[in-house]
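Sorry to interrupt, but I need a hand with the structure work. Go ahead and set the record down below:
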Amino acid sequence: MSKDYQQIAQPSDYYEKIIGLKKAEALQASTFFNLPDSCFVKRSVVAAILNVSSNTMYLMEKNGGGPNFSKFGGRAVRYAKGDVVKWINEQKS
């Protein structure tokens, strides 16, 4: 993965080239705050927004302390954008 900052033209390029997200996830991360509050995103997208690893997100899910999440199909963890934003605002105190 190239870390050449001169090649970053769009916000999604940052998430794709620097953070290492897949293209679809990079687009979600770059437009995260424009999404509807009810939109669900993957753990990796939320990890990129919070600037933590996916493993840290997993530990938050397991031990509590992170944003609320939902499980779909018993395994797929997704975060509602509104819950993530609410959690971020609560951390500002």
